[in-house]
Amino acid sequence: MSSEEIVLKTLKESVEPLKSGEIATATKLSSSDVAKAIKSLKASEQIISPKHCYYACSDN
């Protein structure tokens, strides 16, 4: 499973938007891997940022 898939799965399972650090802790991925995954997922519009530094799945 790729970093993007792991991050997206974590955000889909979350009730609240998460910060990148919270995603890293929950997934056990490095902060840099999470940042790259977030950038990629935002570019493909699979996730959104409902407020500054928080991320959520775009279909939540």
Task: Walk me through the structure.
This protein is an alpha+beta fold. The protein has a single domain, classed as Arc Repressor Mutant, subunit A. The protein is built from 3 helices and 3 strands; from the N terminus they run αβααββ. Strands 1-3-2 form a 3-stranded antiparallel sheet. Helix 1 crosses helix 2 and helix 1 packs across helix 3. The model has no long low-confidence stretch (mean pLDDT 96).
Q: How is this structure best summarized?
A:
The protein is α+β, with helices and mostly antiparallel strands. Helix content is 53%, strand content 13%.
Poorly predicted ranges? none
- The domain tally reads 1
Quote the distance from N terminus to C terminus.
21 Å
In CATH terms, what is the architecture?
Answer: Orthogonal Bundle
- Residue share in helices? 40-55%
What structural class do the secondary elements suggest?
alpha+beta
Features:
single chain; 60 residues; alpha+beta; Arc Repressor Mutant, subunit A; 3 helices; 3 strands; 13% strand; MarR family transcriptional regulator; WH_DNA-bd_sf
How are the SSEs placed, and which strands pair?
Blueprint: H1 3-13, E1 18-19, H2 20-27, H3 31-43, E2 47-48, E3 54-57
Antiparallel strand pairs: 1-3, 2-3
